[in-house]
Amino acid sequence: MHDFKRELRAIRDRLAKQGVSIQDWAAAADVSHTTLWRILERGQTPSVSTYQTLICAEKKFAPMQK
Questions:
Q1: How many Cα atoms occupy the beta-carbon half-sphere of 22 within 13 Å?
Q2: Are 32 and 26 within 8 A, CB to CB?
Q3: pLDDT tens string for the chain (66 positions)?
Q4: CA pair distance 18, 42, nearest whole angstrom
């Protein structure tokens, strides 16, 4: 049931290793920073569309491949 929280926190950790802030991730996903914070820290359940958008936004920060 809380797999979404585990997955989003894993993405947050991967992005942090790349130097991407939570604010940048939220902006890339077109989600408010407050909403993302509530999901990550308070365990608020995201809508399906918000969850999918946050998952897809990680790809925007993927290192460029040669």
A1: 15
A2: yes
A3: 468 888 999 999 999 999 999 999 999 999 999 999 999 888 889 999 999 999 999 988 876 543
A4: 24
Six token digits for residue 53? 């958008």
Q: H helices of 1-66, where?
A: 3-17, 22-29, 33-42, 48-57
3-state secondary structure of 61: helix
The upper half-sphere exposure of residue 3, i.e. CA atoms within 13 Å in the direction of its Cβ, equals 1
Would you tell me how many other CB atoms lie within 10 Å of the CB of residue 57? 21
